[in-house]
Amino acid sequence: MSAGKCSTNSAILKYLTESNRPYSVNDIVNNLHKEYGKAAVIKALEALVENGKVVEKIYGKQKVYIRDQSDLSVPCELLSEMDTRINQLSQKLKELQDTFKQSNTEFDALNSSLSVKQLNEKIEFCEKQNSGLKVRADQIKEKVGNTNTIDFNSSHDEMKRRKVAWNTRKRIANTLLSALMDGCPTDKKALMEEIGVEEDN
């Protein structure tokens, strides 16, 4: 093999190794700034495929070439960096998934809540109810009159005094009725009807 062919083969192999992605013949010619002719590139690729340095793949009518990966070794430092980067990206992906899930939950909650129009209608309904209750309260207040705490306490005390007096009189009446029953041939109910006494429950 001539020195020119070796140089072409080495240049193309180096390019495919560094880029580490598939290219067609035209891509290689253009990316190497047409330093090598198309025919020379094709011959170099055929030789590299035959030597097992490059793999040829056919997609439809087009052939692409990629560096064979079996004899490539990756430095440990590069592998460590790649692992770190993968972990970082995995963590970032998880955070994005959690954010997306939370956003979906909030979106569903908003969809299930009342719309602005519905809220305005509900507010209007409550305001009408409040107005009606206020009118009713004013009407009751007008009928009953203003009653302050002092008036209420005074009325309550008066009611208690009257209740005590009523209980006292009831006890006296029962005592007198019992005394009358001692010499009366009729029963208590008949006697009460005869003298016109009504018993409270």
UniProtKB/TrEMBL annotation:
All copies of domain Homologous-pairing protein 2 winged helix, residue ranges: 9-66
GO molecular function terms attached to this record: double-stranded DNA binding; recombinase activator activity
Signal peptide positions on this chain: none
UniProt name for this protein: Homologous-pairing protein 2-like protein
SUPFAM superfamilies in alphabetical order: Winged helix' DNA-binding domain
Coiled coil: 79-143
Pfam families found in the cross-reference section: WHD_TBPIP
Protein's cellular compartments: Nucleus
Protein family (similarity comment): Belongs to the HOP2 family.
Annotated TM spans: none
Alphabetic keyword roster: Coiled coil, DNA recombination, Meiosis, Nucleus
Gene Ontology CC terms: condensed nuclear chromosome; DNA recombinase auxiliary factor complex
GO biological process, one term: meiotic strand invasion involved in reciprocal meiotic recombination
